[in-house]
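Hey, I'm writing a tutorial for new members on how sequence and structure tokens pair up, and I'd like a real worked example in the thread rather than a made-up one. If someone can provide the structure for the chain below, I'll link this post from the tutorial.
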Amino acid sequence: MTKPNINFQQARKGRGAGANPRNRFEQIDYLPEEEDPVEETPAPPTRYHPDATKSIIAFNDSPDIPFRAGLNPYRGCEHGCIYCYARPSHEYFGLSAGLDFETEIFVKHDAPALLRKTLQSPKWQPQPIALSGNTDPYQPAEQKLQITRGCLEVLADFRNPVGHHHQK
């Protein structure tokens, strides 16, 4: 087995990825003529974008995923674990699985209200919900935004079972 060619010195301070790799879905690729040395390039700031999703619970029927219903308050993850399996999901937004995944975070501000509406629906069949099967629900922004906390409070109000399932 050959080792991957990874230069761990490329990562910018405070970030897991050293670059924004090409998005596999985009036909146009921008390549700068000359990149600044990483040591001189400051860590890019994190930007938060509202995610105006209309539903909050995602369902799956995959036999290799140990839950059926999942709730993700955020898309993207500022923790920036370079090995995170969720990185490619950002490519569906036209962003990269590299630095964009760590710096362009989509926030579902309405998640607690959407969850309450879902659980109040006569169509809802109570079942365990996996909290954040994709990205970490306890990101740095959670300290201020309290979206995950709000969802947990709603789940407690309805006595609906919840668990944390995050595969990295």
